[in-house]
Amino acid sequence: MKNILISGAWPYANGSLHIGHIAALLPGDVIARYYRAKGNQVVYVSGSDCHGTPVTIRAKQEGKTPREVSDSYHTEFCEVFCKLGFSYDLYGKTSDEWHIDFVRSFHRKMYESKYISEKTVPQLFCTTCNKTLTDRLVIGICPFCGEKTRGDQCDACGEVLEAENIKKPKCAECGSPLTLQTTKQLYIEISKLEKELTAYLDAHPKWRKNAISFTKRYFDEGLRDRAITRDLDWGIDVPKTGYEGKKIYIWAENVLGYMSASRVVCDARGVDYEELWGDARHYYVHGKDNIPFHTIILPSLLLAHGGGWRLPDDIISSEHMTLDGSKISTSKNHAIWAKDIVDRYNPDALRYFFIINGPEKRDTDFTWREFTERNNSELLGIYGNFVNRSLAFIVKYLEGVVPNGVTDETLHSAIENAFTSVGQKIENGQLKDALGEVFDLIRLGNKYYDTEQPWKTRVSNPDKCGNTLYNCVQLIANLSVLLHPFLPFSSEKLFSWLGVRPEWTEQNVISGLLLPRISILFERLEHKE
Ligand SMILES: [Zn+2]
Ligand SMILES: [Zn+2]
Q1: Engineering a disulfide at 95: which of 50, 113, 448, 523 sits with its beta carbon 3.0 to 4.6 angstroms away?
Q2: 1 pLDDT tier (thresholds 50, 70, 90)
Q3: Mean pLDDT calculated for residue range 402-425
Q4: What is the whole-number distance in angstroms between the Cα of residue 165 and the centre of ligand 1?
Q5: Any idea which ligand is nearest the CA of 130?
Q6: In this predicted structure, what is the pLDDT of residue 374?
Q7: Could you tell me the distance, in angstroms and rounded to a whole number, from the CA of residue 153 to the centre of ligand 2?
Q8: 220 CA distance to ligand 1 centroid (A)?
Q9: Which ligand has the nearest atom to the CA of 170?
Q10: How close is the Cα of 147 to the center of ligand 1, in Å?
């Protein structure tokens, strides 16, 4: 299949990114880099989610406008992603004109469908603030679990809520009890799409367990129709007469960012956008909290629009990453902020840890001790060591020239195998296993080096010594390609030293190649308590 769309979740531009965001989003970059190396037409997009009440609330706290706040977090996100090597083809923001225009025209068409209806609904009003309130501007008690909640989603049980339905609603700002009024809003009648959505879920038995169970739970509770417009000051204007002053609810527009951003990329490349949204494979990469938005809300919007758009194929939905054994909490400042670590550590060391210890199937924990240990014993101890001892040997004893040799069949077939098997695992979203398998191959290389003992044969049997190093270099070249999706910075170093291209196929380094000045790939880290 030629076209691959990788859709990374759009982080809220109302606060800094922490390690949990990075762990959830990084798989998208690995998958994108892999497919590019395979020669597919890859469109990898994401952006900052700039609208909605969280941004408005933050703006008020900081005494800025929502645009100023979201723009400044957007800039921070761009820097973090860039330093970590995220290879987005476009990382935009929902306040960009191209997104706004796209969403308005998508909605205008969607409003003609039988799935969109107008309802007169109760709406919460704060007489103290003289304002209509919704989403996070309302606090109260969750009707599902009885815990304290915000009006948009309950942190305790994960339910997506309508502010009007929560119990004992109060104004988040001034704490006053709220009164009910009525207004009209547009609704998407998801209940009418039950047959299509059920068939869609049933057609994807290979989704991650959390994606299937979270989605099923929504079906079991009965699919509810959802408002797609809101009484807010900040957001995208509803393109319908009679809705002046109302905005499109963020979840009816931010998930369309995958379409709007990929449209920009396709237009710039001069490739067919409709084909990307038709004959293709689509990956959606996000944390588990976002599952229903990608398995129910987005498919509902796409179906209601009626454009024949492709529905998500692969849901790469992470569990949570915890910190020192407990849940990351931005409000309690129990978090490691991405902006604080991207300058301090080798980006590949961070990427290695977030994949090999990634919350792929269950929650995983971040501790500085484990990060340091895995860097030292695995990344440096296994991989860095193999590369360094092989190349340094050639520089020291063989005048820096890759010697001639005969291909070792065991290594050769292990390499050949790895391209197929690691590739398959990446395609399936099993990145931990994929990376682990490449490391098994490196272990095989280290074993080969130890068994062949080039430091002895250098004197006793120079041809054998040359043969050993020849095979080690071949393996390193292939490792650099196999690891490029995971560890692009170190791989690009090796590409330039060995003249390798990032193509997902077995590589061959010519004997006689003069190595340039080499350096170590990874630093040893000290653990500080
Ligand atoms: Zn709840
Ligand atoms: Zn109030």
Answers
A1: 50
A2: low
A3: 97
A4: 12
A5: 2
A6: 97
A7: 20
A8: 16
A9: 2
A10: 6
How far is ligand 1, taken at its centre, from the CA of residue 480, in Å? 47
Q: Which residues, 6+ apart, have CB-to-CB distance to 36 below 8 Å?
A: 42, 87, 502
pLDDT digits (tens, 9 = 90+) for 187-198: 999 999 999 999
Side-chain half-sphere of 234: how many Cα atoms within 13 Å?
23
Task: Determine the Cα angle at 367 with ends 353 and 480, to 5°.
Answer: 15
Ligand nearest to the CA of 138: 2
Checking if the pLDDT of 168 tops 80, the result is yes
Q: Separation of 66 CA from ligand 1 center, angstroms?
A: 28
CA-wise closest residue to 354 among 91, 15, 30? 30
Confidence of residue 529 (pLDDT cuts 50, 70, 90): low
Q: Which of 244, 64, 245, 56 is nearest to 137 (CA)?
A: 56
* Ligand 1 midpoint to CA 53 (Å): 19
Q: Starting from the CA of residue 127, give the closest ligand.
A: 2
Alpha helix (H) ranges present in 120-256? Answer: 194-202, 209-220
Give CA–CA dist 299/286, Å, rounded. Answer: 16
- Please tell me the predicted confidence (pLDDT) of residue 130: 87
Instruction: Supply the pLDDT for residue 313.
Output: 98
pLDDT for 276-289, tens place per residue?
A: 999 999 999 999 99
How many whole angstroms separate alpha carbon 47 and alpha carbon 395? 45
Quote the ligand 1 centre to 142 CA distance (angstroms): 5
Amino acid at 224: R
Distance between CA atoms of residues 49 and 257, nearest Å: 9
In 3D space, the residue among 151, 144, 143 whose CA is nearest the CA of residue 171 turns out to be 151
CB of 438 within 8 A of CB of 418? yes
Count CB neighbours of 244 within 10 A.
Answer: 8
Ligand nearest to the CA of 155: 1
Which tens digits make up the pLDDT trace of 348-396? Answer: 999 999 999 999 999 999 999 999 999 999 999 999 999 999 999 999 9
**Ligand 2 ion: nearby residues, β-carbon < 5 Å:** 126, 128-129, 171, 173-174, 176
Residues 507-514 have a mean pLDDT of 91
> What DSSP designation does 52 have?
S
What's the mean pLDDT in 12-38? 97
The four Cα atoms 469, 472, 473, 478 give a dihedral, to 10 degrees, of 170
